[in-house]
Amino acid sequence: MSFIVEVVGVRKVYGRLEALKGITLRVREGEIYGLVGPNGAGKTTLLRIVAGLVKPTSGTVRVAGLDPYVNFSETRRIIGYLPEEAGTYDFLTGYEHFYFYSKLYGLEKESIEYGIELSGLGERLRDYTRSYSKGMKRRLLLALVLMRKPRLALLDEPTAGLDVHASLNVRRVIKKYVEETRASVIVSSHNMLEIEYLCDRVGLIFNGRIVAEGTVGELLEKYSAENLEEVFEKATSGYV
Amino acid sequence: MKKTLNAVLWKEFKEITRDRKLLATTILSPILSLTAIAFLTAILLSYQPVNIALVDMDNRDVSNWFIEALGKSLVEKGYIVYETSNYELVARNLSFDLIVIVPRGFTENYTNYRVMYVEIVKRAGVSEERVSRAEGDVRSIISWLSTVLSLERIKELASRAGMEEIDPNAIRDPIQIKIPIYIAPTGEPAKPEDILRPFIARLLILTFTFIVTPAATYIVDGIVGERERKTIEMLLSSPAGIRDAVISKIIASSIIGLIASISDIAGLLVYYGLLVVVLGGWFSGALDVILIVLHALTAFLSILVTVSISLPFVTRAKSIKSAGSIASLISIISLAFFVSGWIVDFYKLPPNILTILYVSPYTHSILAIQSYVYRDYALTAQCILVLTLVSIAILYISLKLLDREKILLASEK
Fold first, then answer.
1. Which H helix or E strand runs over B351?
2. Domain containing A30 — which CATH number?
3. Last residue of a domain, one of B120, B137, B172
4. What's the structural domain count of chain A?
5. Among residues 376-405 of chain B, which lie with CB inside 8 Å of chain A?
6. What residues are paired with B42 via a beta bridge?
7. Where residue B59 sits, what CATH number does that domain have?
8. Cβ-Cβ contacts under 8 Å, A96 against chain B
9. Is A101 in Cβ contact with B14 (below 8 Å)?
């Protein structure tokens, strides 16, 4: 079985704070992996390490066999990363965002058309993004990440702060993208429903550690629980 | 140029050209600042009223002539003059800043060939600069009137001695200085613009402060602002990476500086135009094309140095406020140099002092302009070369010190 992501014994220390305490996880090709945990559990740090933006204190990370921090340039074509609180450029229109990112990644016109379709923003793409709602900005940013069809999409809290309709839209975009491309996705969230809807496998992260991992069905069975929230409660009880 | 750098530059210029507030402050700041300086240093000063009272306590023909001649000359110089014979009246009136008293016996002393004293009374607590200037004018007019009277006395004594043919000036001032002439650095008689060019050069040096500050502010907003607006993480994770992102910011801030430099020249024309209107004179020929190009080039290199020095600190700053403080500190250092370059002729400083000052790249910025004015083109070329090499070296070191993790996490630690 081939893995697009292999994280083995990764620790990250900021001064006196140990944000990650020896994380190990593997993500298969074509899989949507859900990283579930409360705020401050280490989800963002882990995704930044996989994206190559932050260097782990110890442990190894491989994306398609490459170290994303050391082989930063090579892994840019493989990884698409949507940060948790990503913003847009106020003085650029939605279309200009597509133009800008397509130039950065050296993409063809077809990619821009695909991104425009994914965003579903239609005529609003002609407007400066400072006039966009939070949901519109999130859809635009998600489309910017996915338009180049990365083999691995890292989506940090893609629906955080969005209303129900905007969240549903974003989830549909992610689902549609994976169905069309068979790409791998790691999506972090503290929304258990979202994870159940989207993910093939789930890793529960708490206090810098993966405390449980498996498919939603496996986890429910293992912890004799009715939903992921209950699983999370039982899985973390020994770590509190 | 790399495609990714091109793309980030395209984004930067779109943002700059659409940010009207940024453009307005960059363009208007030098024009408004120089206009304000022109008003404050020249126009207001020339129109500032000083009230002078002339008290004739002698009230006879020579004292009347003296008061009338002195009053007329002072009015011509723009002073408000009041003539009276009552000292008590003007001494108690606070509107009079300076009082000139002609005491009793003034006329008699003239006819008896004795010294004719005049008293000057200054009011305490009044702006010393204003009163000193008025006092200086009063003294120079009295000196001129004294000369007129002494020549009359010499003529009369010569007549009594039967020596009418002699020139009274030759008795009074046997040695005289002719009107001084100016020569250019080449030794040739100076043209009017040669006299004006050092003044213009000093102003050009002062205007560097209006160029460096917006450029430093832009780099702060470009890097820390991008982090606070949450746009930097996607940019850092793209193929552009940290170096292209930062280089594009430096190029953009230099462009901002160049816009400010063009605006500086416009501001300078406004400044000098106002002086010409108010004080009279000329300024055609004082600004030559090479000086303008040299100013723009030196401005660009000064910005590059400032931005490069700021870069390692700005990228590690926790917030836009702390980054702004760091950039302000570096701008203040440049300000200290450029203001002193406005006042002090660095070109004339002794070598031992200049050697110490050479440590600062801003000394080379100042000398590049001043040496050009003194037509020391070898030194101009040397300063530009040093400034270029120092800029590149500091920029290289600053870029080497960049760390994407530090930029990303500086505000979170």
1. helix B351-357
2. 3.40.50.300
3. B172
4. 1
5. 404-405
6. none
7. 3.40.1710.10
8. 14
9. no
Q: Count of CB contacts below 8 A, A vs B?
A: 75
- For B245, the token pair is 């992102």
Do B277 and B202 belong together in one domain? yes
How far CA B47 is from CA of A14, A54, B40, in Å, comes to 64, 65, 11
Regarding whether B67 and B124 lie in a shared domain, the answer is: yes
* pLDDT tens per residue across span B185-233: 777 777 766 777 777 788 888 888 877 877 777 777 778 888 888 898 9
Q: How far is A114 from chain B (nearest CA, A)?
A: 19
Which structural domain range is residue B315 located in? 2-43+190-412
Put simply, whether A39 touches B (Cβ < 8 Å) is no
Segment A10-28, tens digit of pLDDT: 999 988 889 999 999 999 9
Residue B97 lies in a domain: yes
Does A85 contact B7 at a Cβ distance shorter than 8 Å? no
Q: What are the start-end ranges of the H helices in chain A?
A: 43-51, 72-75, 94-105, 109-119, 134-146, 164-181, 192-198, 216-222, 228-236
B236 contact A CB<8A: yes
Identify whether B292 is part of a domain. yes
Nearest Cα of chain B lies from the Cα of A237 at a distance, in angstroms, of 29
Instruction: Single out the residue of B411, B9, B31, B6 nearest to residue B214, CA to CA.
Output: B31
Give B8's contacts in chain A (Cβ within 8 Å).
Answer: 104
Same domain, B243 and B370: yes
Q: Which domain covers residue A152, as residue numbers?
A: 3-236
| Separation CA B385–CA B381 (nearest Å) | 6
For testing the chain A interface, which of B1, B8, B11, B21 should be mutated: the one with the most A CBs within 10 Å? Answer: B11
Contact present, B130 and B50 (Cβ < 8 Å): yes
Domain count, chain B: 2
CA distance B237 to chain A (A): 7
**Of A213, A154, A197, nearest in space to A26 by CA:** A213
Nearest alpha carbon to residue B379 among B359, B398, B407, B354: B354
Same domain, B344 and B255: yes
pLDDT of residue B37: 75
Q: pTM of this prediction?
A: 0.71
Residue A65, both tokens: 């066999």
Cα–Cα distances (Å) from A134 to A137, A160, A164, A189, B59, in that order, read 5, 10, 12, 17, 89
Identify whether residues B367 and B223 lie together within a single domain. Answer: yes
The pLDDT-based confidence of A54 (bands split at 50, 70, 90) is very high
Asked if residue B28 belongs to a domain, the reply is yes
* Whether residues B117 and B87 fall in one domain: yes
ipTM of the complex: 0.90
The three-point CA angle A116-A120-A125 to 5° equals 60
What would the pLDDT profile of B269-281 be if each residue is shown by its tens digit? 777 776 666 555 5
